[in-house]
Amino acid sequence: MKKLTGYNFLVMMITLTLPILLTNCGSSKSANESVNKKDAEWYRSKEWLNGLQLTPHESINQQEFSRQYRLNKTWWNEAFNFLKTHDLAELKPGKYVIDSDNVFATVTELNPNEKGQVKWEAHRNYNDLQYVIKGKAEMGVASSSSPKALVTVPYDPKTDNENFTVTGEKYYDAVPGTFFIFSPKEMHRPAFKVDGYNDIKKIVIKVRVPK
User: Fold this and answer.
1) Which residues, including other chains, have CB under 8 Å from residue 98's CB and lie 6 or more apart?
2) 3-state SS, residue 198
3) pTM
4) 151 CB neighbour count, 10 Å cutoff
5) What distance lies between CA 194 and its chain's CA centroid?
6) Most CB atoms within 10 A, among 28, 80, 112, 125?
7) Which of 193, 178, 182, 189 is nearest to 55 (CA)?
8) Angle at CA 184, nearest 5°, toward 141 and 44?
9) Closest Cα to residue 128, out of 118, 117, 139, 136?
10) Model confidence over 28-45: pLDDT tens digits?
């Protein structure tokens, strides 16, 4: 029998194991694609809105929302039901307890600040569902893991808040009919002034992040 050199042995091992590795990688990729496709189809169906006639904004992190919803859909259903069953235009400013400290809403009527006065923020224990009921504002969105993000105010567990500066962000109009969801995976620069709109009314519903 011909004696294998170190080089020949290495070539033989690669030849034997490469097809197995490629097969495993392909299976993993297919599995991830099928899960993402399933989540996307479920999200597009809007069955999770339970009849709420508002449009989810295109910036919503669909994968993270799908994950959280499946972990505890009760809290999300309570949030959407609150929006569906209340005349938002008539709601008085103030705090509304929906499910103890798991889901609660804050309604404000305000003259929004200029862009430079509104800080980038992110939360860890709560999602922000933000909806402009009246008027028009601008929302900034960026990934919390962005390498271009710098912490300006460290996270405070009492307020569940952390502030940043960031570049490479995206901005969107916030108008009646469309709501935003900012998970802990997104920094946001919420509801700053748009020229011509001096007064807005908005609601922020805090939905606890399931453990």
Assistant:
1) 78, 79, 82, 104, 105, 205
2) coil
3) 0.82
4) 12
5) 23
6) 112
7) 178
8) 70
9) 139
10) 333 334 448 888 999 999
